[in-house]
Amino acid sequence: MSKPLEQNFVELLEQHQNIVHKVCRLYTNNYDAHNDLFQEITIQLWKAFPKFRGDSKFSTWMYRVGLNTAITLYRKSKRTINTQQFDTVQFKISAEEYDSTEEDQLKLLYNAVHQLNDIEKALVFLYLEDKNYKEISETMGITEVNARVKMNRVKTKLKTILNP
Amino acid sequence: MDELELLKKDWVNSDAKFEKKSASQIYPMLLKKSSSIVKTLFYISIAELVFWIVINALPFVMSDTYRAKHDEMYNSNWFIILSVLSYAIIILFVYLLYKSYKSISVTDSARRLMKNIIKTRKVIKYYVLYNLIMATVSMIFGFYYTSKHDPKLIEKIEHFNNTQFMVMVGVFALVTVIFVTIIWLFYKLIYGILLKRLNRNYNELKKIEV
Fold first, then answer.
1. Boundary residue ending a domain (A91, A121, A155)
2. A47 and A15 share a domain?
3. Domain check: are A12 and A78 in the same one?
4. Does the distance separating the beta carbons of A10 and B26 come in below 8 Å?
5. What are the counts of helices (DSSP H) followed by strands (DSSP E) for chain A?
6. B42 to chain A, closest Cα gap in Å
7. For the ranges A4-8, A76-80, A125-129, which has the lowest average pLDDT?
């Protein structure tokens, strides 16, 4: 690999790394697992980078590789036995933005999302990232109509988890 | 407020909360080895290829009598044809494996990626199945050949009555079945564990499309 390609890649990843962090946030629940998945997604992105033609946005391309790694390629590492709660480790919550009621509600919501299966999480992820149903259907390989139907079911499922 | 909308609000604002990786942290990551299931599948398929080639070659290397018999058998035309055919089948499997590995792309849609991985696994499965069938056939053929041509064995079974002969055939068949079943179960276990999550996710996607 030539140096400029590597440099170009690292710069793009550094700039868009939040996408990878967000995928890791949905699919892992501790610090070590988060970093492990981040590492694997980085490798997959790097391996696929020479074929990235730039006809789609780098971020759009990252969504696909990131999700595919999380739901298909990634094998959970054996060394991820840290049981610390995700939110207390991975996030630097500052005092001024801390709102206990909303924070509690969000914690419940994130916990509910963690209870979804891998595919449902992927749909929620794309929805949270404001992707339209066409993009969701293309990323997942399902039809637009079915993506919409499934998304509605996921919303209902989340409601049921939150209000049993 | 819709639950997901509240989540979305937080999601959009969560960017600043992640521990940012610097370029100097990202560079070493590029050099690390992937631990993806495709890589594991690749190593397993190589191991399967080598394993069966070694199993087939082992008697030839280990035993002089086998080698002598082997050389003798090579005089028969149909044995040569069979050997050429078995090498051709190995080459065909290597080609199919190569082709299906090439078709696996992380930039495909989730469903297509899963489908291609499952297809690759199937090629390995058929290779193992082919070898198990060949092993069974060889064992039966070998047994039949020995019972007809090996003077020591002929001498022993000459005195066998029908029941004794049937018992011997039965024991031999049982050993063959146990041998084949153990290998098959071992194989199912490896792939069962490795691809459990992938199969579950693929079925979930298929369910959405029904």
1. A91
2. yes
3. yes
4. yes
5. 8, 0
6. 13
7. A76-80
CB-based contacts of B110, cutoff 8 Å, min separation 6: A67, A68, A71, A72, A119, A122, A139, A140, A141, B201, B205
**Do A13 and B26 lie within an 8 Å CB cutoff?**
yes
For residue A51, the chain B residue with the least C-alpha distance is B107
Q: The whole model's pTM is what?
A: 0.83
Q: What is the ipTM of this complex?
A: 0.83
Contact A43 B204 (CB under 8 A): no
pLDDT tens-digit readout, B66-93: 777 767 766 777 778 888 888 899 899 9
Contacts of B38 in chain A (CB under 8 A): 73
Nearest to B194 by CA among B22, B44, B12, B20: B44
Based on the fold, state whether residues A57 and A118 are members of the same structural domain.
no
Cα-based distances in Å from B193 to A69, A75, B14, B180, B186? 18, 11, 35, 20, 11
The closest CB to that of B36, out of A44, A102, A110, belongs to A44
Q: How far apart are CA B210 and CA B207, in angstroms?
A: 5
A 55-84 → B contacts, CB under 8 A: 61, 64-65, 67-69, 71-75, 77
